[in-house]
Amino acid sequence: MAKMNNRADWEKFNQFKVAESIYLLSRQLSASWQLARQQFLPASYRRFSQVVFCGMGGSNLVSELIRSVYGASIKAPFVLVRNYQLPAFVNQQTLVIICSYSGNTEETLSCFKQALSRKAKLVCLATGGQLKSWALKKQQPFYQLDNKLNPSGQPRYGVGLQLGALLALFESLRLLTISQAELDRIVEHLEGLNNLFGLDLVIKNNPAKRIARELVGRLPVIVAADNLVANAHLLTNQLNESAKNLAWYNLLPELNHHLLEGLELPVSISRRLKFLFLTSNLSLLENQKRVSATQAVLKKQGLGFIEYAIKGDNRLMIAAEAISFGSWLSFYLAVLNNREPAGVPWVDFFKAELAK
């Protein structure tokens, strides 16, 4: 394991500016929100029966996060698509949001064509690529994601860009309610978290660095409930892609109905597990109780776990803190694993094979 004693040690692994992108999360959120609020959709877009969101990988995680945070209050059925095909019910009364960070994701572009042919109400988000070209050519509403605020160029570290734009879009469509004052408070909180999780604070005082060290050589299992389930998914993706570390996530209460019995064998794997609980004081009380009971089972089985507990009075702010924590955690684990955190060589190899 690499020994990290000061900022210079961490900076050696920052040649692709991942840390800069994480520092800019608050500005991504604020700038994208402001830019998206300046765009106006046709009046007909306020009349729809359901919302379908299409995206792959990091381009769909923000929609999942909005559903986790606002799920019970979103004022229309909200379906996420991670594939080539739209559901059969999509028609002229469906709002279809097409999101591809690069603008060139083939599954998402396939959904764009289908939505267009079915005369759905289309909204597109991208930094550029084919999706931007197609949207502008077909005169469909297009939200520009400003890649300059994500110098790493990696979608998983441009989450703030997508989140700001989607919050503004959903607010303009009256699917949810969020004020400028609320967003400003979240931006300010994120800026403060850079001092807690950032490069300068030493390991013993930095929760992201400390927990990263505990995960070295282990198989992380991320556990979360209700308002943090999307954060568990997002963090797992970042650990896989950035730290090159196998990880997966399980959600409460579902995991209590099967996973606990599967932790005995094979011993060679179960003893390498390290559970990371993302918890919140705003989760359902029933699920808060399940966290304690689940940890008791793990302790009795001799399995290790850590908890990162977030307290607050706002579900979106709690989710934003989890994004910041997870982004820094994945960067630090990459460094401790002696891996370059930006590149995705195996994904690139796969795409090359697919293109043959």
Which structural class should the secondary elements be placed in? alpha/beta
- Strand coverage percent: 5-15%
Please tell me what the overall shape is. Answer: globular
Low-confidence runs: none
Number of strands: 9
What oligomeric state is this? Answer: single chain
CATH architecture call of the largest domain = 3-Layer(aba) Sandwich
Instruction: Return the CATH class of the largest domain.
Output: Alpha Beta
Instruction: Name the helix and strand elements from N-terminus to C-terminus, one letter apiece.
Output: HHHEHEEHEHEHHHEHEHEHEHH
Number of helices: 14
Q: Spatial order of the strands in the main sheet? A: 2-1-3-4-5
Q: Would you give an account of this structure?
A:
The strands form two sheets. This protein has a five-stranded parallel β-sheet, with helices on both faces. A four-stranded parallel β-sheet has the order 7-6-8-9, with helices on both faces. It is globular. It is built from 14 helices and nine strands. The longest helix is centred in the C-terminal third of the chain and has 22 residues, at 315-336. The chain is α/β, with parallel strands linked by helices. It has helices at residues 7-11, 18-23, 25-37, 58-70, 106-117, 129-137, 159-172, 180-197, 207-215, 229-241, 267-270, 285-300, 315-336, 345-354; strands at 50-54, 78-81, 94-99, 121-126, 142-144, 219-225, 248-252, 273-280, 304-310. It folds into two domains: 11-178, Rossmann fold (3-Layer(aba) Sandwich); 202-336, Glucose-6-phosphate isomerase like protein, domain 1 (Rossmann fold, 3-Layer(aba) Sandwich).
